[in-house]
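Hi team,

Below is the intake form for PadR family transcriptional regulator from Paenibacillus arenosi. Please confirm the fields before the structure is written into the shared record.

FORM ID: S-0412
PROTEIN: PadR family transcriptional regulator
ORGANISM: Paenibacillus arenosi
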Amino acid sequence: MLNTLSYGLLGLLAKEPCSGYDLMLRIQPFWQAKHSQIYPLLAKLERENYVQYERIEQRDKPDKKVYTITDFGREAVMEWLGEPPAETAFRDELSLKANCIWMTDRNTAAPLFLARMKQLETKIAYYEKLLTRIPEEERHIRSKHFGDYILLNRAISLAEGQIEWCKWVIQMLEDGQDV
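The structure came back. Fields below:
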């Protein structure tokens, strides 16, 4: 049985062949995964015939493997798509700190939310840049870029909502209201 990240990697490979590094970059806007997770999964997927790879020689760098999905891998993704998604897991250090905010003062608390706003603004700019790379004619349900298009819009919307929440908390801190 494959884990969710495995299916995500297979889905990305269904779009186009990629190296492990390229897969890491492509999945980052939607799923946090590191090299240390992706490369062992790719090796497992290759052993179990979900993917295959071609070794590409490079000058001044180690050879790289470019992976493609197999028919078996494609079938696994299609089966996975028909299953209901798991409940969203939410892990956020700022949320843990917000739960303890009553223990500190506004001069300590406000910078936490200002820093998060800056992080989110940077993410939005990055997501908007990625959106510009999807041509208008590829923003339809039958395009292999449609998932990217709707997920980038979702990421922007969620980040904008978080920025509004941060502004609200900062305003409450400035007004001296009880949280």
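SUMMARY LINE: The helical segments are 4-15, 20-27, 35-47, 71-81, 93-99, 106-132, 146-175.

Thanks, M.
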